Task: inverse folding
């Protein structure tokens, strides 16, 4: 028994050491990647780069249109996908009575979330641009991204709703609340963390997408207003990074754009976490 106990301790310590090693290597790799991007990108960031647009005539490079286009496409995609995704998750969790239909929709959502983004780009180009007659721009790109991030919002919200104890629902109904009031005041308020997590994952997918947007949003580097950008070729930061790195050979500008992307995602995630904490405080 003593020999067996000692061997188990050795095995446990070995496994624990391997886990610590894997965790350390993962963190070190992440720090190296982010550090290298910042090392190459920060020296190339300037006020003129952030506040102007690119011009071939003046031989200037600016990413202000790309920053605005990224914010525009986030706004358009979330404005469409949040009601659809959260509403579908509420229906599947609280109202749907057919388990086969729910299982089929869940399987379809999981399948869609694993498809390559280039397929969504082709479908978006064929449907939104060629069939519906939309122009390349933020609207077509945003609607294409809705197809990509809808499974994320749907599944994360659905799993969050399932974690709410059934006793909460029964207690609200026993007090005389109707079904929708129970869902709105009890279930959704207790599932807000999962909804916020889904939004963060969706924003990360939106900001990091380039392949689908090349077909639908275009790669125009001209500064447009929000309404103009909906129906005109507008490149986001990821598309601009591709253009500057591959088409124009501006590696320094590409690293600067990558740095701005990282900072933008960080700011959006922090804002979403703060919003989630405020909602939890109000709930408490």
Result:
């Amino acid at each position: 028994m003593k020999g067996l106990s000692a061997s188990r301790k050795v095995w446990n310590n070995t496994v624990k050491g391997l886990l610590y090693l894997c965790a350390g290597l993962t963190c070190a790799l992440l720090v190296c990647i982010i550090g290298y991007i910042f090392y190459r990108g920060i020296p190339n960031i300037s006020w003129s780069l952030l506040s102007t647009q690119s011009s071939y005539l003046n031989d200037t490079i600016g990413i202000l249109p790309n920053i605005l286009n990224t914010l525009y496409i986030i706004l358009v995609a979330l404005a469409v996908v949040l009601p659809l995704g959260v509403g579908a998750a509420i229906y599947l969790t609280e109202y749907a009575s057919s388990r086969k239909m729910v299982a089929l929709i869940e399987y379809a959502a999981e399948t869609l979330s694993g498809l390559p983004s280039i397929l969504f780009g082709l479908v978006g180009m064929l449907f939104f641009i060629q069939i519906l007659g939309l122009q390349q721009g933020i609207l077509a790109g945003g609607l294409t991204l809705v197809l990509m991030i809808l499974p994320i919002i749907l599944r994360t919200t659905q799993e969050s709703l399932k974690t709410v104890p059934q006793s909460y629902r029964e207690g609200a109904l026993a007090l005389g609340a109707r079904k929708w009031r129970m869902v709105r005041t009890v279930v959704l308020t207790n599932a807000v963390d999962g909804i916020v997590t889904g939004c963060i994952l969706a924003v990360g997918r939106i900001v990091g997408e380039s392949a689908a947007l090349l077909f639908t949003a275009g790669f125009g580097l001209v500064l447009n207003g929000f309404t103009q950008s909906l129906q005109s070729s507008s490149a986001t930061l990821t598309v601009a990074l591709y253009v500057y790195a591959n088409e124009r050979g501006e590696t320094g500008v590409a690293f600067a754009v990558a740095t701005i992307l990282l900072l933008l995602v960080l700011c959006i995630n922090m804002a979403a976490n703060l919003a989630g904490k405020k909602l939890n405080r109000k709930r408490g």
User: Anything to note?
Assistant: The chain has a mean pLDDT of 86.
